[in-house]
Amino acid sequence: MLLTTTEQVMGREYDILGLVKGATIQSKNIGRDFGAGLKSIVGGELTGYTEMMEEARDIAMQRMEEEAKRLGADGIVGIRFSTSAIMQGAGLSCKVEPVTSAGYAAANPASASRPAWSALENRMLRCTVGDEMRDWQDALKDFFANWNGEL
Fold this sequence. Notes:
The chain has a two-stranded parallel sheet. The chain is elongated, with a radius of gyration of 24 Å. It is mainly α. The chain has helices at residues 30-42, 47-70, 101-107, 123-129, 136-146; strands at 2-3, 75-76.
C-alpha cells in the first residue's frame, strides 16, 4: 500500500474513498516513569518514551491501513501524525491554602525571605510543550559552574 504525507502523488491520479484514521493510547508503567524521572535530572533522550511513541505510531499506521483496505483503497495520501499527553499522571488530592510571607517566614525560619512576586509557575509551559522548567536553584548552580566571568 502506498503511504505518503503529501497531498498529491506525482504521475498518479486517485479517487478519494473516504477518511481513514488510526489511533492508540499508550500507557507508561512505573518503571519507565521512574527511569525517565532520573534521566530528566541529567538530561538526554528518554529512550523508553521514544520506543513507546514509535510503537504507538506503528500501531496507528497499521490500523489506518486496515481501515483503508476495508474501503478498497491501495494507498493513503495526506497522512498526519499527532502526539499528545492526555494525562500527566495521577496525584494526591490535597487542600491548598494561601500563606502570607510572614506566615511562611515564621514556619521556615532558616529560609531566605520570599520574593515580593513569587508566582514562579510554569503551568502553561507544561500544558503547551509538555515539559517543565528546571528548578531555578539548579539552573543557577549550573550557570555559575559553567560561567567564564564574562557577560
